[in-house]
Amino acid sequence: MTQSHALNYSSYLRLDKILDAQEPRSLANPDGMEHDEMLFIIIHQVFELWFKQILHEVDFAKEQMVVGNIGKVQHVLKRIRSIIKVMVGQVDVIETMTPVEFSAFRDRLDAASGLQSYQFREIEFSLGFKRANVLDRYEESSDIYQQLNKRLNEPSLWDAFIQFVAQRGYAVPEEYLKEISTSEIQSDGAIIDVIEEIYHSDHELTGLCETLIDLDEGLLEWRYRHIKMVQRTIGMKPGTGGSTGAMYLMASLDNPIFPDLWRVRAKL
Ligand code: HEM
Questions:
Q1: Exposure on the CB side of residue 165, measured as CA atoms within 13 A
Q2: Domain chopping of the chain, boundaries
Q3: What is the CATH code for 33-101+113-163+183-267?
């Protein structure tokens, strides 16, 4: 192998691609690029990389759940929780951009918006927060549509958890073992009873329930920080994606992914 083909830091990490992927739209301004647009692009790219890692870990957690390797599931879910905490912390960085600094290039974004982040939707779907109408934002023939459709129709982390709990002998209603839901997880009294029993008698599964609620709370924390970031940057202006902006986002705070892990608390 010649020296030029030897693996090195840059080639292993494909830095040629990653560091060439920032194209501020304001570069086209007659008086030069808006300084803060670089931060705006990089922070979104960093989040998308974390989203990719989370999906990688959720897929692995599901596989390990199916084979009953709960130790490994816990290990991976705790890693995801750590990533979410880092994501929440990173909101501080983008909050150093003032409303005036953002306004200087916001028009350049046209209709581009986080609303179109397909990896974010994939995370929601893979955990169990499925909403089929999200697919309407993408061309049916596109790879993104196909990828989301695949995740919509495959078992979520919650499905894998419920199946595992059933295998352990808990009284999970039959329908959960036969059908894969393609909508949000609905609260169910029978599942709440199962979780209640787990909390009173099963230390290992209690630990798993606690880690799952950690993830749910972590994502809600991210949503909350994102809303506050939006409010301090654009106030109550509508979003570039066509939603009402902060008003639209606030509704998501009432939607935990695993509703019964929250409801059961009132009975414990
Ligand atoms: C100044 C910074 C930001 C502002 C002003 C902002 C604004 C908004 C607004 C207004 C929406 C609602 C949808 C619409 O556009 O109509 C939205 C959605 C979203 N944004 Fe941001 N955002 C910012 C930073 C970020 C960052 C850094 C990320 C990281 C990936 C992000 C990810 C998302 C996601 C995933 C959604 C969809 C949320 C959902 O539908 O539940 N945003 N953003």
A1: 29
A2: 33-101+113-163+183-267
A3: 1.20.58.480
Ligand 1 in reach of 222 Cβ (< 6 A): no
Q: Would you state the structure tokens that stand for residue 263, as one six-digit string?
A: 């409801």
102 touches ligand 1 (CB under 6 Å) = yes
Residue ID of nearest Cα to ligand 1 atom 26: 44
Mean pLDDT of 254-263: 97
Residue 132 Cα distances to 11, 28, 243, angstroms: 39, 38, 18
At residue 5 the predicted structure's pLDDT band, cuts being 50, 70 and 90, is: confident
Nearest CA to ligand 1 atom 6: 230
Distance, in Å, from the CA atom of 29 to the CA atom of 68, rounded to the nearest integer, reads 57
Q: Which atom of ligand 1 is nearest to the CA of 115?
A: 37
CA of 90, closest atom in ligand 1? 27
Token digits of residue 27: 């570069």
Of 163, 128, 130, the closest CA to residue 260 belongs to 128
